[in-house]
């Protein structure tokens, strides 16, 4: 058995090395299931990103579900606003995914800018993020893990959605999904409060969080746990009630004993208003609406006056 695995591994490496050369031994990044390296195509000289995922042949689960989801989703998505998957190499002990290379992610980009992204770039990057999600949602795909680390940026400030390991195709009506999605700082309040179901609106809440973070230079709801995050949200946007969010009191994790905070006002929330103006604040409120049914979709967001002149 071990000999067969080694043979398969050697064949994968040989096929891979015939087409690509890893140019830097140091990994560009590392995730839960593998490392990412820079490589170059021997045929076209195109520089690419290689994600190597080690597999355990003795594991009954085989290829991690996140990797399978990412491959399946990216095969269906063909958009300039979504990172491209060029090729897949697979053996019982290793999976290699070949992506287009993007020089940076939004988290590193914001750090390099010292948290001070010019207003026109905030608008442009927001438009590209919303456009990418419009493409996903039109294909009935929820990303479920929108955060700065999963938004890639190249030298020309082009933004693309990446890391579709938690993405899911959905149907109407939307079935119940797991709550273990979206990094807690960008997690929608309906998930934090235990809603039995959710939809594409969770992606749009995360867009609002990322939009505000680009404008202010810091995460908007930087909690160290689910309850701390929900309190961070309430402290800034006000504690919801059945008027601002019909049905909120019926959610499993909502407590009538929650502290009653009032909305701080965007002028008092890290000068957000100063960076994006009245129009940007209006769009931000549409994306950060408490009630999922009232939260704007990506398609509506693209038609908002703030983004009207931000497209290509």
From TrEMBL:
Cellular component, GO, one term: cyclin-dependent protein kinase holoenzyme complex
Entry binding sites for ATP: 51
Biological process according to GO: G1/S transition of mitotic cell cycle; regulation of G2/M transition of mitotic cell cycle; regulation of gene expression; signal transduction
CDD domains: STKc_CDK_like
UniProt similarity note: Belongs to the protein kinase superfamily. CMGC Ser/Thr protein kinase family. CDC2/CDKX subfamily.
Keywords: ATP-binding, Kinase, Nucleotide-binding, Serine/threonine-protein kinase, Transferase
Keyword presence, tRNA processing: no
E.C. number: 2.7.11.22
Entry annotated with the keyword ATP-binding: yes
EC class name: transferase
Pfam families: Pkinase (PF00069)
Native source species: Symbiodinium natans
Descriptive protein name: Cyclin-dependent kinase 2 homolog
């Amino acid at each position: 058995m071990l000999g067969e695995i080694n043979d398969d591994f050697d064949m994968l490496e040989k096929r891979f090395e015939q087409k690509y050369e890893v140019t830097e031994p140091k990994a560009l990044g590392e995730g839960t299931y593998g490392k990412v390296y820079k490589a170059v195509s021997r045929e076209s000289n195109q520089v690419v990103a290689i994600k190597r995922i080690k597999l355990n042949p003795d594991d009954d689960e085989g290829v991690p579900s996140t990797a399978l989801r990412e491959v399946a989703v990216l095969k269906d998505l063909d958009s300039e606003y979504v990172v491209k998957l060029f090729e897949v190499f697979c053996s019982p002990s290793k999976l290699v995914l070949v992506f287009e290379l993007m020089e940076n992610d939004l988290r590193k980009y914001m750090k390099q800018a010292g948290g001070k992204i010019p207003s026109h770039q905030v608008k442009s990057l927001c438009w590209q993020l919303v456009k990418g999600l419009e493409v996903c949602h039109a294909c009935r795909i929820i990303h479920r893990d929108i955060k700065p680390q999963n938004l890639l940026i190249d030298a020309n400030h082009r933004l693309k959605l990446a890391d579709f390991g938690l993405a899911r195709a959905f149907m109407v009506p939307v079935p119940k999904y797991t709550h273990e999605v979206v990094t807690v700082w960008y997690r929608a309040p309906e998930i934090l409060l235990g809603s039995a179901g959710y939809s594409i609106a969770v992606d749009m809440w995360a867009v609002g969080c990322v939009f505000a973070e680009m404008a202010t230079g810091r995460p908007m709801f930087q909690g160290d746990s689910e309850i701390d995050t929900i309190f961070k949200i309430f402290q800034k946007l006000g504690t919801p009630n059945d008027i601002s969010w019909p049905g909120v009191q019926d959610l499993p994790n909502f407590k009538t004993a929650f502290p009653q905070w009032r909305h701080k006002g965007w002028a008092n929330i890290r000068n957000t208003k100063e960076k994006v103006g009245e129009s940007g604040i209006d769009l931000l409120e549409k994306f950060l609406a408490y009630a999922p049914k009232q939260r704007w979709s990506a398609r509506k967001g693209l038609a908002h006056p703030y983004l009207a002149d931000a497209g290509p």
